[in-house]
Description:
Its cofactor is [2Fe-2S] cluster; [4Fe-4S] cluster; [3Fe-4S] cluster. The chain is α+β, with helices and mostly antiparallel strands. Helix content is 36%, strand content 15%. The longest helix has 18 residues, at 217-234. The N and C termini lie far apart (65 Å). The model has no long low-confidence stretch (mean pLDDT 94). Residues 143-149, 170, 173, 210-213, 215, 217 line the site of iron/sulfur cluster.
Amino acid sequence: xxxxxxxxxxxxxxxxxxxxxxxxxxxxxxxxxxxxxxxxxxxxxxxxxxxxxxxxxxxxxxxxxxxxxxxxxxxxxxxxxxxxxxxxxxxxxxxxxxxxxxxxxxxxxxxxxxxxxxxxxxxxxxxxxxxxxxxxxxxxxxxxxxxxxxxxxxxxxxxxxxxxxxxxxxxxxxxxxxxxxxxxxxxxxxxxxxxxxxxxxxxxxxxxxxxxxxxxxxxxxxxxxxxxxxxxxxxxxxxxxxxxxxx
Length: 247
Ligand code: SF4
Ligand code: F3S
Ligand code: FES
């Protein structure tokens, strides 16, 4: 069954913009990205939109749909009533380049600041991992870097001033993954707290709610990382050890 849907799409650039109304055909089984592509093909050839896989795997098509951070390619049109207006705006936490495309370089800068996996002197093939350690890493490695979690976190969503000191859930999760990896020799607790702003996170769990890969970011990464940091700071023996440089 085809029908005409009312779309309201943000059009503009870094300077100014507005929500513009369109009426676009929708066919059975389509997702929001299909409709945006039809809009581009029929009425708005200059509409800027970033996408790649159309399968929920590249993380490119992040947007806010009726105010909810989502992947456009994974949001079925059947989610909405046929007479409902579907509003599509760029993700809010990162600066707009044009229309639905934002500059997410903040995320790549934060990624570069995380020291790489450090297996010490262990040679490839010398280390055997427990299955539970493998599974923990695998959950975090499902991340497609859509940055919806960083987009939704209140610490930086409306607080540009926090960005230098907070890397967001995606990168705190990366630090947690490495910190809990049995073959990684680096102690990442201090950089998590001091350089990447773990203390800003007050466990609101909005990041977990929007993750399209259903990674339990808060419960499985951020809270365990916080527990490790607290252990280092408040355990007197650990504190003394760190002062003496032996922990
Ligand atoms: Fe996207 Fe989830 Fe990765 Fe965050 S953790 S960037 S929401 S896939
Ligand atoms: Fe932000 Fe997630 Fe913590 S939304 S406050 S990083 S639990
Ligand atoms: Fe790749 Fe949507 S186009 S995740």
